[in-house]
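Internal tracking record. Fields below are filled automatically when a chain is submitted to the structure queue. Please do not edit lines marked as system-generated. If the sequence contains nonstandard residues, flag them in the REMARKS field before resubmitting.
Queue: standard
Priority: normal
Entity type: single polypeptide chain
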Amino acid sequence: MAEASSPVPPAPSELAAQWHALAEEWARWYARTASEFTGEPLLGSIANLALAPFPPTGPVDVERLAALNEKYRPRWEALWSAAIAAAAAGGLPEQPLPDVASRAPGDRRFAAREWRELPYFALMKQGYLLLGEYLGEAATLAPLPEPDRQRLMFLTKQYVDALAPTNFMATNPDALKRALSTEGASLMRGVANLAEDTRRGRITMSDERAFEVGRNLAVTPGSVVFRNDLIELIQYAPTTARVHRRPLVIVPPCINKYYILDLQPENSLVRWAVGEGHTVFMISWRNIPPELGRLTWDDYIEMGVLCAIAAARQITGSKTVNTLGFCVGGTLLACTLAVLAARSDRSVASVTLLTTMLDFADPGDIGVYVSREMLAARKSALMEGKRMQGSELAGAFASLRANELVWNYVVSNYLKGETPPAFDLLYWNGDSSNLPGPMCAYYLEQMYLDNKLREGGALTMAGASIDLARVTVPAYLVASRDDHIVPWRSAYRSIGLLGGDVNFVLGASGHIAGVVNPPAKNRRNYWTNSLLTDDADDWFARAESHPGSWWPDWGAWLAPHRGALCRAPRASGSARNPVLGPAPGRYVIESSE
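SYSTEM-GENERATED OUTPUT FOLLOWS
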């Protein structure tokens, strides 16, 4: 048998150009595809990375490149030899093919037995995984400034994920078997699914026929007790004979609908808090229509959070409230508390921040989407009132976990013709909201790009010079260990920004599942450590793991701040803020499409 030859690696002088060509060609292809799918360019998508060309590179480190090629050479040779042996044996080798590359933990793309047992698929899988691993390491060698290297590494991963053989009918054994067993019916259903998703402008991730807001989502009983152009405020009905005097005001993220915290009865944080004797008020952000496209960050503070706090105080008669903010809702809440501190207003007694960033020095993967070039290309339109479409943001967040939240559904929906299973969290994930341009531009520029929120006196909001160090109320901070939107170490940095006593808790899982983790299910775990050091990893190394949900720990922390018990009110609202209708209200059912 002829001696197996291995692929010839590119010359060092060619590698930088190939990196650039790979990144920019992929970005421009994605831009065209995404624009055709959604009907307009995507802000925060890979398309916009093409607007910021990579700078010229310096000489490639030849020694590091040679070491990388030498590292991979034996594995390529083993794979090539196996391919030759399989061909010589008529496609049925006597020995199993060698595993020269392994799937990442949690990668379910190659679970079918054909990827192990049939040489054609086994070789394809091994070659793809090995090439992806090589390209990922090669991208780290690019002689680029760190932000550009991170962008290149991200683009390389997107490119590798998109080219997986599982994403194509001819090279997906599961899809081929399904087409044969259904005599082509699965292909017809896949085409119909693709046509419907193209009409929607997004990939369907859950069986949307299974859910309806107000029917089996967002069903905790309550009433809308305040409404303006930006928010509705929901007051939830008590389920205990006595309630605590100090109400709890919740500020959810404005990017999605509020009911992530009130999905179904068994996983509703709202329902659990009401059962603990809290009078809970929830902001329901409006899905911004064109006529409100000029609203600003200050409007979200004044018309949103401050109005909600004032209404909750008036209705309950309490001079102070407890507050909770989630994700960007937490950022808005922290800014509002800084405004109140500047005004010497002590109407807030405590704050809870869930997966919230206040220091944007390391925004994680989402940072690859936010560049000065990207913002410059869109800022003029945003400031003139062009809205940030909810589908743009949803697509950007989904692409951070492309194999799970994009290609998984491309394969199941279109190649296999399946209907996604009913999943409340993913239904909510697809129910996004439009945001006003000036508000988004301010958030991206002042926080993500300039990171001014952490600097005392660097920003003025609602007429006040803000300083997070003046926020001295007790704070309970929750982060999620596997969060791909708010890295937990970035959330941990908030302990050095807030001026009061801080308690930090780390939950297992990701951005949403780490928060929506009800005690009754007894799933996952969380970590605590009362000694808050400057180093997040040092804190974690000394932290104690606890089984189950962090909700009871939060409830115990909040207990001293709840106020005395009193008889539960017989009705919601007040003479000044009468009931305007039942929960979930009008704004939450407005579509962004």
